Amino acid sequence: MSETSPKLRAELEGIPTYKPGRSAQSAATAAGAAAGGPVAYKLSSNENPYPPLPSVLETVTAAAGSFNRYPDMMCTSLMNELADRFGVPVSHLSTGTGSVGVAQQLIQATSGPGDEVIYAWRSFEAYPIITQISGATSVQVPLTPGEVHDLDAMADAITDRTRLIFVCNPNNPTGTVVRRAELERFLDRVPGDVLVVLDEAYREFIRDAEVPDGVQVYRERPNVCVLRTFSKAYGLAGLRVGFAIAHEPVAAALRKTAVPFGVSQLAQEAAIASLRAEDELLGRVGSLVSERTRVAEGLRVQGWTVPETQANFVWLRLGDRTAEFAGVCEQAGVVIRPFPGEGVRVTIGESEANDIFLKTTESFRKDL
Ligand SMILES: Cc1ncc(COP(=O)(O)O)c(C=O)c1O
Known about the structure:
By secondary structure, the protein is α/β, with parallel strands linked by helices. It has helices spanning 24-31, 54-64, 76-86, 98-110, 126-133, 151-156, 180-189, 214-220, 250-257, 265-276, 278-301, 322-332, 351-367; strands at residues 41-42, 93-96, 116-121, 137-142, 162-168, 195-199, 224-229, 242-245, 313-316, 334-335, 337-339, 343-347.
């Protein structure tokens, strides 16, 4: 066998690997659930805790009968449905394998070696990965002490090498938002040849009326693109379908960079069925928002500082107690998402899971 191995691109050196939220099963095994320990709830991936709606499941089951065929590559029915739903031309839409897939296509389409991609930090952990894969340079702008995007500093960070800016609204993992006036002021400072991506993966969980709908912002600004997903509010995380709304030529570039047949027929049919069952799904979102209020208020009563969250998770900045706290949660039966040395992100889940989390924070707080 030859001693040499295939040459890989230097950009891949040292790339951070995406850490998926730990599954309840692996945590349960670690915590001894197999030996009669606590049942673990997964609050580590910002998933929707509700099972699929019967109507959506039925549609997907029926579609499964033809998975020997390739899916509709153009996602025609879904694109038409989305175009009607948002009042945008089909030519301004592009679907992908989750919104993270579309985000990666946006970087591929805009940024390569020598180019810069600006985003807040900490924010969605895929941003540094997909930027580095493209060979572009990440420019990470620290969040304010209140855990919010520092839009002035982000505008100051723009150079003639900047190609793309992510604004994650609400921000993962802090749940914080940027509001209309500050976003407009920021966008006024961004040159027209820099693409601004409003990542609205958690849009449906927002209750703050001052947070702009990215689709309205896109209508007025040719360099703004909106990312949405069916993974969170619509509960289709496992089926992988997200989409962008963007002006030409960005939308056309997305069609060029798409992996052929990347969105399965099951995902397409499930997304359409979910749009048609939207009232029911948004009712579930409403219940999760009520749970969010209960959890955030419960934490504050216990004495925690909790940034105002508009997403389906809360953020606790625990610093060097982060890993220890995550371990205590697992022992209690809930798996959360630690960012070692920084803090924990905890998804709002089933009310029993939220109760366990609140009990755990209460006793941990006494030891702080
Ligand atoms: C801010 C943000 N954007 C995008 C995504 C990607 O979601 P998906 O690829 O499932 O659409 C996530 C998932 O956690 C996220 O938090």
